[in-house]
Design goal:
Number of helices: 17
Mean pLDDT: 80
Structural class: mainly alpha
Oligomer: single chain
Helix content: over 70%
Radius of gyration: 30 Å
Order of helices and strands: EEHEHHHHHHHHHHHHHHHH
Low-confidence stretches: 49-57
Strand content: 5-15%
């Protein structure tokens, strides 16, 4: 249906502007009168929030920080008794992110059109996750909407913290490996060819290691354009595969098996799962629906599929403990806590303990990460230096010995 921009005055005489979706301007006017608003001007307009290609390139992105502030401010305003429409108007005017301001404006217009807040949030799937929408829907049904917004603020803050922790865990080894790769390329393209010219003047048989280094260097010098194109193709091919429905779960599984960093990623992912499940259970979401929604928050397709299998098991009448044990990703300590939680009916509190435990373990692993990685990097660097020393300096050593004997 077409969209119409309107200017109108409410019952208090205040000027109100916005965009509504309806069949024609007359229907929009009827809709406004039904909301107690007197229209002044109604004009056709383009679809809101759909900028042109150039606009999409330079528009602000909605970040987790925007969602955190939105959730916290909504909690504060609703707890203070501010009507939700006034709260959204204030948030729209105060936010510095123009993209998010447009999102809040769309929420207001959806509420103007008679939709519930959860339905309005669902119209923005790129901003509000199904888990967020589901939690707000539960808050609407139970009358605890402000409490839900507070919990979502804490949840998003935790999500942001864990995601930054995972990035920190992989940043150091990635940087070191990339630096070593650049060093190898520079040595093969510029250093070894210079030594090869010197060795050629010896007119002597070179050691095997030297011949191998020179041969590989000659190959890189002759074929570096093809190698660069191949590397770029492999990079984008891998990126496409790792984001495809078939490749993403496999790559996410591989990430969990990476030495040292993999266990940190796993613990961070399970901490997000436990915190999300505890939040959903505490808010009154049924277990089956909670597992379905939580599977979309863990940011790991492999773990998400494990959680979906847990949901299927619970649907068949199995306990959460049995399905969690069958998933094969939880430690015995965590399984024991889940068992106690099911027995006592306090599974939300116990899952919160699980999340806190994993969070503490992630923080400890990150503090000791450098000490765990340094031996591996030192060994790798030592092997690289040994190969270069044997290949580059052995002929010079042999030449020196020959000259001394003469």
């Amino acid at each position: 249906m077409p969209h119409f921009a309107y200017r109108a005055r409410n019952s208090g005489g205040e000027l109100v502007e916005g965009v509504l979706e309806n069949s024609d301007s007359g229907a929009v006017a009827t809709q406004l009168f039904g909301l107690g608003i007197t229209p002044i001007e109604i004009t056709p307009t383009s679809v809101p929030g759909a900028p042109n290609v150039l606009g999409r390139l330079f528009q602000d992105k909605v970040t987790q920080l925007d969602l955190m502030l939105f959730s916290r401010q909504m909690f504060t305003l609703l707890k203070a008794g501010v009507p939700i429409m006034r709260a959204l108007t204030g948030l729209q005017e105060s936010t510095s992110n123009k993209t998010f301001a447009a999102v809040v404006r769309d929420l207001r217009e959806s509420l103007d059109a008679g939709r519930e807040l959860s339905a309005a949030l669902a119209r923005q799937p790129k901003v509000f996750t199904p888990f967020y929408v589901s939690m707000v829907r539960v808050g609407e049904m139970t009358g605890r909407l402000e409490e839900v917004f507070l919990r979502m603020f804490e949840h998003i803050e935790f999500e942001k913290f864990m995601r930054e922790q995972v990035k920190a865990a992989t940043r150091y080894p990635t940087f070191v490996v990339a630096t070593m790769a650049v060093a190898i390329v520079i040595i093969n393209l510029f250093v070894i060819p210079a030594f090869a010219k010197v060795y050629k003047s010896f007119n002597a048989t070179l050691p095997l290691m030297t011949r191998m280094l020179i041969g590989f260097s000659n190959f890189m010098v002759a074929w570096w354009p093809a190698m660069l194109v191949t590397l770029v193709a492999v990079f984008f091919g891998f990126r496409f595969w790792s984001r495809s429905p078939a490749g993403k779960p496999k790559w996410d599984e591989v990430k969990l098996k990476i030495p040292i960093a993999g266990k940190i990623v796993l613990k961070a992912t399970l901490a997000r799962f436990a915190r999300s499940f505890a939040l959903a259970s505490r808010s009154g979401v049924p277990v089956i629906q909670a597992l379905s929604n939580v599977a979309q928050t863990v940011d790991n397709e492999f773990i998400a599929r494990k959680i979906e299998k847990m949901r299927e098991g619970v649907e068949r009448g199995e306990s959460v403990l049995r399905t969690a044990a069958a998933s094969g990703v939880f430690t015995p300590v965590v399984l024991q806590m889940i068992a106690v939680g099911e027995e006592t009916g306090a599974i939300d509190d116990l899952m919160q303990e699980v999340a806190d435990m994993y969070q503490r373990e992630v923080e400890y692993e990150l503090k000791t990460l450098s000490s765990q990685i340094e031996p591996i990097l030192i060994i790798a660097l030592g092997i690289l230096v040994l190969i270069l020393a044997l290949g580059v300096f052995l002929p010079i050593w042999d030449l020196g010995k020959t000259m001394l004997h003469k």
